[in-house]
Amino acid sequence: MKFDKEEWKKKLEERLLEKFSVSLKDASPFEIYRALGETVMSFIARDWYETKKEYSKTKQAFYFSSEFLMGRALGNNLINLGIDKEIQEFLKELEIDYNQIEDEEEDAALGNGGLGRLAACFMDSLATLNLPGQGYSIRYRNGIFNQYLRDGYQVEKPETWLKYGDVWSVMRPEDEVIVNFGNTSVRALPYDMPIIGYGTKNINTLRLWEAHSIVDLDLGVFNQQDYLHATQDKTLAEDISRVLYPNDSTDEGKKLRLRQQYFFVSASLQDIMKNFKKVHGREFSKIPEFIAIQLNDTHPVIAIPELMRILVDVEGVLWEDAWEIVKKTFSYTNHTILAEALEKWWIGLYQEVVPRIFQITEGIHNQFKNELAKLYPNDTDRQNRMQIIQGNMIHMAWLAIYGSHKVNGVAELHTEILKNRELKDWYELYPEKFLNKTNGITQRRWLLKSNPQLSSYITELIGDAWIKNLSELKKLEQFLDDEKVLNKIWDIKIEKKKELVEYLRETQGIDINPKSIFDVQVKRMHEYKRQLLNIFQVYNLYQQLKQNPNMDFTPTTYIYGAKAAPGYKVAKGIIRLINDVAQIVNGDDEIKDKLKVVFIENYRVTVAEKIFPAADISEQISTAGKEASGTGNMKFMLNGAITLGTLDGANVEIAKEAGEENEYIFGMRVEDIDELRKKGYDPRFPYNNITGLKQVVDALIDGSLSDLGSGIYREIHSLLMERGDQYFVLEDFEDYRRKQREINRDYKNKISWAKKMLKNIANAGKFSSDRTILEYANEIWDIKETKIK
Ligand code: Z2T
To answer: Which cofactors must be present for this protein to function (predicted)?
Structure first.
């Protein structure tokens, strides 16, 4: 794209004058941010329009997801348009600090963690690859809560990204639809966000629905009698898009959550059907030729009975014909096997909130029940296990598999576990439906944007084709023995570490040594992710350093960042524990320059962009079999951090790509866990036999550490020692500590360390979401590149 500096400057000045009545010279950072955003929006307007027009003629994929964790848009949009450097330069000439402008933007944090961020990376890849794909979700007024620490405990405050409106959304009143619930109806008002691909003219769309009351329409006219009641209705309707549920990997069976799901799914399907009919009229059998819908986990699975309702009730299609259309249209991605996450709805709630959808779901259930009776006449156990409605609960995953033509897991190991264990019955019935789609991340945000120094250097070495084709990075292997290159990537890492140090000094007032090893675990707080194992090792290390001050040791900084679901007591207790240990370690003058523990407050996309480039060690230490994939692991790898991990999720593939000798792999594997479970696991065995472990576990209850009277440390202690240590924290402790020691030794050899870094970067190609999206496009959706002129 050609950049005309004078023209941009003129446009920006005009906007500032029109909108804020201010000159460029006197404008505040917020005003400049807004004006710049609006200028970008007008700059892409025509291409956006052309793209929509072009896509309407072809098969499109629709990504239904209750979460899109987008983060900031300005920097990413400027980079993808190829005008970032130019804008920065021209602001500099005006003595305006670009970083300050960027910092005016709030994260669009409409997601919890991996699942929502994956959806965001997919949007970037779809647009970059010129694929006709659109996202659908809810325009939550409050995204994931902001986290603060008080006495080392997490406190939640509402997130308010829409406080001053949003420059990246366009309201589309002409596309408003009505969503009918059992006893009320609400208006669904769409807002479109442009998704700007890298180095292409195509502009894709993310459509977010906002809930409004129908009484808004003529409040005070037909409701004159009951004005207060009418305003109450308004609040009830608007509640639907008020707030994102802050649970990562646990099911929340609440009425409002069901209303949210039906709200966005029904609005999206009505929208899709309206557009389909505009082009194809009533040829509904053609729906699967033009529409593919991906269900991002079970949260939007109510789309299956809803499309049945639209086809049968509204359009008069025969049930049997409608069912064939539905199956060919939907596909479903599973993101977890944790039992507490598997979504089930009480039929009473369904009946109350969406009565017609309940009837249709029962119809689907009965149809499948009959099929099962014919398929397995002598296996009533199996028939019962596979019922969609069981004991008054609707099993959403079963409904998803039955109503889809493809079902995928998100990493090789995860998909194998689905096929051989969790979904074994289903795989035996429908082997042709199952396939793997290993997750990926967009290199535009997670390298090009977040690590410009490493990006430029890579481009200097192998050219810039990696930005669109990440497997190009393989070419870096020719420099594995080139000390100049190895020194340079080490130096860049130090530079990124210094930037993070500066950020943490400014925001949290902590002082960190950039020469120390940065060992980082950032992700949602959950028992299965085992932040507890990490902090136990740190506490043990502290005790060793106290006992043996002359021990050979490379200074290390342990960095954590994690939000806990507000109702998840144990997770909150672990946050307190990390901060408790941090206070002790960081406050100990004897330890000072050796060991430091940092808990980063309010971990989010924008902070993640500073953390991944600065990490030496990527902690991926979940209990084997529990982490479906992980995607943070990929962002670390791409930025030259070495994985310290179990053979779980995508770690398996990371180790395979880079070579296991270039990672630190430890702990029990899935098979080892099976075996130990069979044999009978007794956590008292490692507790009594592993040097130092008893002291660490006992510190929870012997007064060495303090939960300030909440009782949560005793609870954690009991989970480990009396309730079987479900996640094998104690069992894996020794092997984990051994790897930590190895790392501490290996880091001293700069050249061999940098070689490992380069090996990881060079082999990160597989983990681009471009690769993932092309697989979805070719093997599930059957959509084709559709470039606008
Ligand atoms: C989530 O982030 C993930 C799974 C969920 O299951 C829910 C949420 Cl909010 C219902 C994560 C997985 O834990 C992670 O392993 C995976 O990489 C990510 O989804 C994307 O697939």
So the answer is: pyridoxal 5'-phosphate
